[in-house]
Write a structure and sequence with these properties.
CATH topology of the largest domain: Rossmann fold
Strand order of the largest sheet: 5-4-3-6-7-13-12
CATH class of the largest domain: Alpha Beta
Shape: globular
Radius of gyration: 19 Å
Distance between the termini: 48 Å
Largest sheet: 7 strands, mixed
Oligomer: single chain
Strand content: 25-35%
CATH architecture of the largest domain: 3-Layer(aba) Sandwich
Number of domains: 2
Helix content: 10-25%
Structural class: alpha/beta
CATH superfamily of the largest domain: Vaccinia Virus protein VP39
Number of strands: 13
Amino acid sequence: MVSRIAYNGLVEIYRPPTRPIMDPATRARLYQAQYQSFEQDLPFWSALAAEGGGPILEMGCGTGRLVAALAGMGYPMIGLDHDAAMLERAEAALADDLHRKVTWIKGNLVTYQLNEPVQLAIGALNTFALLDDADFCAALRSARSNLTATGLIALDLPAFDPDPAPIGDDDPLDVFTDPETGASIELRALVDDQTSRGVNVTWLYDELLADGRVIRHPWEQVYFQRTVDQLRQLIQQSGLSVRSIYGDYDFSPLLPESGQLLMVLEHK
């Protein structure tokens, strides 16, 4: 049975994907293209970086957009990700003069140990929304164990919306160009929340080739959307406390209409 489900402002007709899930190299290529020009969050992260200095860890760094930006501002950076294809692209894209400032680590958010403590640990672009409660707490504990005594953890999460506004079924959520192929990419989402694990989202990257063909690349992910109270409980269980909460990258307060939920955490 086809169901119409909404999640964080996304709504689509959900059907099981008919194509194989995309390979890691394609996923990394499209992810890098999607976020190549995304800079809206940089003022937020750079302000936190200026407060404490480095070194700085990005947990789930993907193709290194944020790591490269902060390294370019002079901060020693560590990029952690479990995806080798993402890290390969991150390292290849890094400017030659920044390599000495950046360390790349292949590993997951739950079990890693850094050689030195960091002043700031960042979870950008909903990375921690991909973790169930157990892994969410374990990842926070790992981050806490790698912080200096005055260090901070900052998370960018989806704001909880009990009644998200639907979008048209045929409307792409984003359109961008892959600089490697010149192809236009249209992004859509199939959303199904009928699972105890979380909200199943299949991102559909439709690659519009010059010869008229359209290649659809599906990417399945499970998201866990939580209220502020639920997050506070998990954060407390992880041995941390909430220093501040914001509703946008400009440090504005969290409001019912906020699209982001930004949390800055510190040691208890």
